[in-house]
Amino acid sequence: AHAGDTVYVREGRFKEQLKVRNSGTEGNFVTFRNYQLETVIITGKKLKPAIDLSNREYVVIQGFNVEKVGRWLYFLEAHNNIVRDNHFSQAYDRAGSKSGIFFFHASHNRFINNTLKSNADDALSLVDSERNLVEGNSIHNAHHALWDIRCGNYNVLRNNYFYNERQKGGEVYDCDGQVKTRKYDATRRNLIEANEFAYTANSGNKSPFSGIQYAGQQGIIRHNRFHDTTGPGLRMALYGKEARHNWGNRVYNNLFYGSQFAGIWLQRSRKGGQFEDNRFKNNLLGGSRFVNNDRRWDWWNQTLKGKPVQLYLDRRDGYRFDHTAFVSATGDSPYLAIYGNGNRGPEKPQLTIAQMNAQEPNFQHGLMIADARFIDPANHDYRLREDSPLIDAGTFLTQTSSPGSGTEMKVKDAAYFYDGFGIPGEQGDQIQLDGDTQSARIISIDYATNALRLDQPLSWRKDQGVSLKYNGKAPDIGAYE
Q1: 292 near 262, Cβ under 8 Å?
Q2: For residue 150, which of 37, 62, 218, 462 sits 20 to 30 Å off, Cα-Cα?
Q3: Residue 330: domain span
Q4: 465-475, pLDDT tens digit by residue?
Q5: Does position 381 have pLDDT exceeding 80, yes or no?
Q6: What is the pLDDT of residues 22-69, one digit of tens each?
Q7: How would you class 348 by CB atoms within 10 Å of its CB: exposed for 0-12, middle for 13-18, buried for 19 or more?
């Protein structure tokens, strides 16, 4: 097959690798897909991988069932490819990041609307890869992580469903020898948005399994729903060599609900590490109650067991929380947000949310509510009813730095925003000013100068609030607007 060709594969079971021989060109993809609605199965334990896109560009893979193989699919030195509407199940090879969907030195690829089930190691890995889109996929059950980003930049994970009965959800950290790659402070500006993290497994006497175990830099985590995780929804981690740089991240408008640990856990390391300038805004935490699944630690067994812990802080530096809503039917409590020292308790008494608002410089406008008024929390519909106190209760993400008008806007902090990262088909954020009904789309961002280039002109005053497009008078709190 050559550029512009489509190869239709008829129904059957194939015990050989699909290895694409030729690349397409821009606008003229080489396409391999099933014929109409016929079922095409690629299978065989010796296939490592079953589909190989190594060193190929502008190829489409669509409509295949890959099952009971050694490894699923390789994107090695692969660029500008599309893999969509496939079903991958039962990868048996314990090959770390190589056993599932493996991106390595890969860029501008799109992995869309696929189903991944049952992997012997990591289901999807982006290693030393950039500007890839992973969207609309459903990923279930991996022996290690459902997905990871390692020393990769400008990747997007959006609108995916994650459920893991075996271990954790996702990981973000640097490379310390993975695939013979060592890069540190090198996992920057990845966007993780609008995903559902539905379950993580019980770790037993190990560090609790998180929705995301995160140690990246300058990333955006927004509009995600974390619920029913046995460990924390989001663990901001520091450990080893691969997770020593956790800084400059923007975590906003997420929901953390029903964890058996805490919604968010901020860690420190006895060996040091870089943890600074991590900002949290408009997040909603509730429904979590501490379960001492890891029974090694007296503080967890005797003090925290059964407490309504929503936010677990091992440190008092490197972060700021602003407009965080805590859902508690029993009112304020010293255990909704706790200070600890890893698995040991602090010497000082815990504070209520009201006391943290008054005393803690890194904690601003913590909100106590009895009822978020979700539409149907029993069925995990965490959208807000029209009478929710969280509507219009959020803060703006940043402010303009000077008065002006036109298509270039300087703001105080551009790190909250996304411009598409040059990924095919992607668009930048739509933004809206405080008190204005007009919106504009971001075309590009100069993060060094905090300058946003817009698709149409706006006018603004100094210190005017800037957020993503919103309804009403201000942004809402939580994962939905």
Answers
A1: no
A2: 62
A3: 94-384
A4: 999 999 999 99
A5: yes
A6: 999 999 999 999 999 999 999 999 999 999 999 999 999 999 999 999
A7: exposed
User: Could you read off the pLDDT of 415-447 as tens digits, one per residue?
Assistant: 999 999 999 999 999 999 999 999 999 999 999
Do residues 212 and 167 share a domain? yes
Count of the separate structural domains present in the chain = 2
In the 8-state DSSP scheme, what is residue 364?
E
Q: Which of 384, 409, 442 is the last residue of a domain?
A: 384
Q: Is the pLDDT of residue 178 over 80?
A: no
Single-letter amino acid code for the residue at 164: N
In a domain, 225, yes or no: yes
How many Å is the Cα radius of gyration of the chain? 23
Q: At which residue do the structure tokens 């933004």 appear?
A: 431
Same domain, 379 and 404: no
414 and 326 in a common domain: no
Can you tell me which residue has the tokens 């859902």?
A: 327
Q: Which residue's structure tokens are 């490819």? A: 81
Nearest to 470, CA basis, from 432, 417, 428: 432
pLDDT at 379: 96
Is 431 a member of any domain?
yes
Q: 49: cis peptide before it, omega within 30°?
A: yes
CB 231 within 8 Å of CB 258: no
Q: What is the mean pLDDT of residues 341-369?
A: 91
Q: How far apart are CA 212 and CA 200, in angstroms?
A: 10
SS3 of residue 164 by DSSP:
coil
User: What confidence score (pLDDT) does residue 96 get?
Assistant: 74
Task: Please state, in angstroms and as integers, the Cα–Cα distance from residue 91 to each residue in 68, 95, 142, following that order.
Answer: 6, 10, 9
Pair of tokens at residue 450: 């905090």
Residue bearing tokens 């856990």: 265
Cβ atoms of residues 288 and 358 within 8 Å: no
176 in Cβ contact with 205 (< 8 Å): no
| Of 143, 73, 83, 146, residue with least CA distance to 114 | 83
**Confidence band, pLDDT 50/70/90 cuts, at residue 95:** confident
